[in-house]
Design goal:
About 25% of the residues lie in helices and about 30% in strands. The radius of gyration is 24 Å and the shape is globular. It has 2 domains: about 5-90, no CATH class; about 100-280, OB fold (Dihydrolipoamide Acetyltransferase, E2P) (Beta Barrel), CATH 2.40.50. It is an alpha+beta fold. Helix 1 (about 5-15) runs antiparallel to helix 2 (about 60-90). The protein has 4 helices and 14 strands.
């Protein structure tokens, strides 16, 4: 069987046979972060296969370039395989990036709920739509001013989003709104994407759900912190602490978000809610 390693070895051997200096092929990092199969991707360029400023030999330049491009392409294949496996093992491989979404494949699935109710869900290719996006800038962190019916702070953050994510979310929001109206709902629809400033910067609210047990409550969202080195560690909270979360999600910080979309219709208010499944805060 011809493996990737065999191809690399053959490319290097052919390069040597044509008079080239021995290229030192860069190897991908084996411990790449599992946050997303594309976010940590580092692709070797064709020029990177040869040492800079060194003696590149007197062989045929076209052959040297061809060998370098082959090595680069194979290294990219190897790296893609590694990062995809890491993303799968992280448990978040079902989350799609905006550019991986085809709006033609998005639909609203409606199921009966209780005797007179209905439950709508947003699906992509017959699976619940779940999205991920990296480097979202925090505009507003967790506030202690707004409380739920039990007197606990409502946990959420407001982040800027890129244009490609905004287009997907606005499409989903419009689809869900029309479905709600067709079902006969009279609730006021609350837009999912809000735009601020004279440049109409799109922002969304990411909700951090809690699990209540007796008198205590814990976050059901996985909250992690990424160091500048790339290492990521999960933060454990024994109880919901809005003040501590607020100090973590400070304005201007960046966060990688994995979230699902939930359609709601409650007390004459309806819309689409983004529920954070995992948030990775970047350390400065």
């Amino acid at each position: 069987m011809l493996t990737v390693e065999n191809l690399v070895e053959r490319a290097i051997t052919r390069s040597r046979a044509n008079g080239d200096a021995s290229p030192e092929v860069p190897k991908p990092e084996a411990n790449s972060s599992p946050d997303s199969s594309k976010w940590q991707r580092t692709v070797c360029s064709a020029d990177g296969a040869l040492p800079e400023g060194g003696n590149q030999g007197t062989g045929d330049p076209s052959t040297s370039r061809e060998s370098a491009e082959l090595v680069s392409h194979i290294e990219e294949m190897k790296l893609d395989t590694t990062t995809q496996m890491d993303a799968s093992s992280s448990g978040y491989s079902g989350f799609l990036e905006p550019d991986d979404i085809s709006t033609e494949c998005i639909k609203i699935s409606v199921a009966p709920l209780h005797q007179f109710g209905r439950r709508a869900s947003i699906q992509h290719k017959d699976n619940p739509l779940q999205l991920c996006s990296a480097g979202l800038k925090v505009q507003f962190g967790v506030s202690t001013k707004f409380l739920d019916n039990a007197g606990r702070p409502k946990l959420n953050i407001v982040v800027d989003i890129p244009e490609n994510l905004s287009k997907v979310l606005e499409f989903c929001d419009d689809l869900a709104r029309r479905s709600s109206q067709e079902s006969g709902s009279t609730s006021e629809w609350r837009p999912l994407v809000k735009k601020y400033g004279y440049v109409n910067r799109p922002t969304v609210r990411l909700n951090i759900p809690t699990i209540v047990s007796g008198d205590s409550a814990i976050c059901s969202t996985d909250i992690c912190q990424k160091e500048p080195s790339g290492n990521t560690q999960k933060l454990v909270f024994n109880n919901v602490d809005a003040t501590k979360l607020d100090s973590l999600f400070v304005r201007g910080s960046q966060v990688d978000a994995f979230f699902s979309l939930e359609v709601y219709d409650y007390q004459q208010n309806a819309g689409v809610r983004l529920v954070a499944k995992r948030l990775v805060v970047h350390s400065n």
